[in-house]
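tool=predict chain=A
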Amino acid sequence: MILADDHEMVRQGFSELLSTDAGVVVVGEAKNGREAVALAEETRPDVVILDVEMPVMGAQTALKRLLGLSPPPKVVIVTVFADSRLVHELLALGASAYLSKGASMQTLLDTIRSVARGGDEENVIVSVPRESLQKTEEHDPENGLTRREREVLLLAARGLGNKRIGEDLHLSTATVKRHLSNVYDKLGVHSRSEAVSRAISEGWISSWEIFRPTD
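tool=predict ok
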């Protein structure tokens, strides 16, 4: 695992606490995003702990480059900033989890173990108030779907699989699955076909949208 934070005391504190767990090995520390990417290229860690506000290269750029490695590490964002818009952005880019620095060390350890065990289908873990996340996305008054959920449902209606939907919307496969699960709950259905049928019958998605040519 790699620790990336521009505050040395934070890195040292995390390193000392994590080293008490026999299943966690810290193979490197970085004080900015560029160092984190370089270390990851060299050591190929399973997990990278990444702060948001760092000099030289911020979390968004570092995250994209880390996930471009082969194989890509799981990236856990740990920060004092709980801006829900930023949470959505980083999760949409492919972060496996987002934790506040106010979270307990046990929560951090549990999160590291969870994302390290999971494959591409690992569910996203978010340790910020769900209420604050819900306020950041506009909901359709007719069906309660957010703009992103409707985009995912529309692409599903066009017959695209989860991987292709993720590629088109720049989301991870796990994030696509999470959006679809939310859609099913909100529409009271249990499958993709049922969700699409309900959306078409209620007029939330038109045949023109489904069959129009795409770029």
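DSSP finds eleven helices and six strands in the chain. The chain has two domains: 2-131, 147-211.
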